[in-house]
Amino acid sequence: MGFVDLHCHILWALDDGCQSPEETLAAARALAAAGFAEAAPSPHVQARYGGGDAALSRARLDEARALLAGHGVPLALHPGGENMVDDDFLARVASGAARRLGDPGRYALVEVPFQAPAPALGAVVRRMIASGVTPIVAHPERCLEFERVGRAEEIVRAGAALQLNLGALIGRHGPRARDLALRLLDGGLYAVAGSDLHTPDGAAAWLGAALAAVEARAGRSMLERICGENPRRALAGEALA
Question: pTM for this structure?
Answer without folding.
Answer: 0.97
